[in-house]
Amino acid sequence: MTLLTATSRVRQMKLAGYFLAVLFSGLALWVRFELGAALDGFPFLTFFVAVLFSALLGGFGPGILAALLSGLLAQYFLIDPTNTFSVQWPSGWLAMSFYWGTTLVMVALVNGMTRAYEGQLGARQELRELNDTLETRIQERSRQLEVEMADRQAAESQVRQLQKMESIGQLTGGIAHDFNNMLAIVIGSLDMAKLRLTGEEHPKVGACIDNAMGGAQRASVLTSRLLAFSRQQPLAPQAVDANKLVSGMSEMLRRTLGEQILVETVLAGGLWHCFADTSQLESAIINLAVNARDAMPEGGKLTIETGNAELDDRYARSHEEVQPGQYVMIVVSDSGTGMTPQIIERAFDPFYTTKGVGKGTGLGLSQVFGYVKQSGGHVKIYSEIGEGTSIKIY
Ligand SMILES: Nc1ncnc2c1ncn2[C@@H]1O[C@H](COP(=O)(O)OP(=O)(O)OP(=O)(O)O)[C@@H](O)[C@H]1O
Ligand SMILES: [Mg+2]
């Protein structure tokens, strides 16, 4: 802190400055009396100091007051003839004019100096404030940019994911379609062969044909799941009351999933109707329920919830293929192991499974995905390790 900053507060209090001017002038007179004969011939000397301090602390007005007052005090008490304000002509007038002239210049100089200094301080303060606001604005803008970038990255990864699903879908769809045609020939021929059995063949022939038929039928189920993923299965959409569908399934799910798993349904009131293939929707819910059971080997809670949902523009922007609008939502949640982000990213891929050989084919979620897409809907996984999983179908 400098002398000028320390005194700037006094300068701002106007009355205090004038009071100080009177006080300093009185003090200067007192000092002058104390020093007595030592300063004879210099009646104004101590008053210069009083004027200087008054101007410094009080500013221009108090400085001028101190100059006038001290001149009068000097005239009254110190200059011959004393005890009167009448000034001798010409020597008294000359001295007084000189004193007032110099003190006026002094006050003006001190005032100019303090003004300039205060102006500089103000400018510095303004600069600091500008810097601060600039900094907060930069921070705000970078935060906005970060959010925009995250949105964009999410949308880009969605597009990549969709493109990948699209090309896998085309590939598997093509293969499954041809394969299905060939299987129709195999199954037809096996049927014919069985009809033509006369009973005189080797006893194992009949069993062999049955085995072949079993294999071909399993292959046919597999191809129909692949066709479901590649959105090529025949669908018969109709108006569906999802509440009715879910409550109709809950008893069957309770029985299939076993006692260890508590099945709960939360059905929304005033639910809209949706347009979908009922039996495929049922099979999608069963697929999700079976996955939930597999994620809860020690038991747990499975919740199937329905609701009306509005997917807005912002959601549609970060999920490339979603059309904003009103949807009926079915959520299947479990309190199971949850999935890592890596598993979530690949869960819809056909043949992607984390289950052991012979336990999972990795087609369940692919089928759900293909069916939902073919029906013009949207499916989304929310999951946290150790917390559980929620899969929402719109
Ligand atoms: N509710 C869930 N909780 C935890 N992980 C899940 C859940 N649902 C799916 N997964 C994970 O996603 C993978 C893929 O699931 P998907 O249903 O496609 O195949 P699967 O269940 O392994 O085999 P399939 O359904 O053909 O018998 C699963 O292997 C599992 O790792
Ligand atoms: Mg599954």
Explain what this protein looks like in three dimensions:
- The structure is a single chain.
- This protein has 394 residues and is α+β, with helices and mostly antiparallel strands.
- The chain has 3 domains: 3-132, no CATH class; 158-229, Helix Hairpins, CATH 1.10.287; 238-393, Heat Shock Protein 90 (2-Layer Sandwich).
- The protein has helices at 3-12, 14-35, 45-58, 60-78, 91-195, 203-229, 242-257, 278-294, 313-318, 341-346, 364-374, and strands at residues 238-240, 261-266, 274-276, 300-311, 325-334, 379-384, 388-393.
- Strands 2-4-5-7-6 form a 5-stranded mixed sheet. Strands 1-3 form a two-stranded antiparallel sheet.
- The protein is rod-shaped.
- Residues 291-292, 295, 334, 336-339, 343, 347, 352-355, 360-366, 389 line the site of adenosine-5'-triphosphate.
Provide tags for this entry.
394 residues; alpha+beta; Helix Hairpins; Heat Shock Protein 90; 3 domains; 11 helices; 7 strands; rod-shaped; binds adenosine-5'-triphosphate
Q: Can you describe this structure in just a few lines?
A:
The protein is α+β, with helices and mostly antiparallel strands and 394 residues long. It has helices spanning 3-12, 14-35, 45-58, 60-78, 91-195, 203-229, 242-257, 278-294, 313-318, 341-346, 364-374, and strands at residues 238-240, 261-266, 274-276, 300-311, 325-334, 379-384, 388-393.
